[in-house]
Amino acid sequence: MADKLVAGTDAIAAKGWFKAHQWLILRRASQLSILVLFLLGPLAGLWIVKGNLAASMTLDVLPLTDPHVLLQSVLSGVVPEFSAIVGVVIVIAFYLLVGGRVYCSWVCPVNIVTDAAAWLRRKLGIKTASQMAKSTRYWMLGLTLVLPLITGSLVWELFNPVSMLFRGIVFGMGMAWILIVGIFLFDLFVTKNGWCGRLCPVGAFYSLLGVGSAIRIVAAERESCNDCMDCFVVCPEKQVIKPALKGADKGIGPVILSANCTNCGRCIDVCAKDVFQFGTRFNNLMVNASGKQRDDGAQHSV
């Protein structure tokens, strides 16, 4: 088994540093580019995108609306504008195609903070026995939808780290620092991948949104796996890997179908054997594993 503190070392030796980090680099470029587009207006007067990650207008033509935020608004009694509805339809269509939790790994700026905590945790060899049920995030999601009904306001958006981090970058961090640093320390010392993997209701919402998405990660060369375990070390939702990687004998296809997979591509990066690649959920239909290929229902679990 590979040393868990240096996951990806074999991949760097086999593929080179860039190939062993290409999807990580692309994700950071995506997250930072989105932030820059939003910040160009208030900081430089170049209004390519107006608004924020909750609701925006690009080039005064393309509306985009966060469906979780709009749902909270409707539950609080607000009648949405037509442009907001159009924006939600566009966003939902996109995430139905590429996977809901792509938002978590390719868009959300808080992911940079939690990834940094996970990296430092591995680097320092920090291990904790704290266990928090992954279902907690769905209870949190339910709470964010119940509170607007009770209070008539978007209570969650007052504490949403994504919203607070964005406002902090534009207007000064202020009290937002406390929440962001708290999330970093929570992931570092309390629970591995605790915020994104166990608490964040936004991630829970997008996992439900992308449950049937077409674009998935595929363990296309799973027969080449040498059990180094590097993919399990770096994956923020490592429970999603095993069915696709080790399920051939049970007739389970190589596609990671779990809605909690973030399509981050880190398993692709760190694998020296190039076991993983991006594909579609339909890759299962083109593979006959032990003569009884099927889409295993357990992989769909959230």
Task: Summarize this structure briefly.
The chain is mostly helical and 302 residues long. Helices cover 51% and strands 6% of the residues.
What would you note in describing this structure?
51% of the residues lie in helices and 6% in strands. The protein has helices at 9-15, 22-44, 67-75, 82-98, 102-107, 110-124, 136-151, 155-159, 161-171, 176-190, 194-199, 201-209, 230-234, 241-246, 266-270; strands spanning 49-51, 55-58, 62-65, 215-218, 277-280. Helix 3 crosses helix 7, helix 6 runs parallel beside helix 10 and helix 9 (161-171) crosses helix 10 (176-190). The two termini are 28 Å apart. Residues 288-302 have low confidence and may be disordered.
Report the mean per-residue pLDDT as an integer: 90
**Structural class designation:** mainly alpha
Got a strand count? 5
- Provide the succession of SSEs: HHEEEHHHHHHHHHHEHHHE
Strand and helix layout:
Layout: H1 9-15, H2 22-44, E1 49-51, E2 55-58, E3 62-65, H3 67-75, H4 82-98, H5 102-107, H6 110-124, H7 136-151, H8 155-159, H9 161-171, H10 176-190, H11 194-199, H12 201-209, E4 215-218, H13 230-234, H14 241-246, H15 266-270, E5 277-280
Antiparallel strand pairs: 1-2, 2-3, 4-5
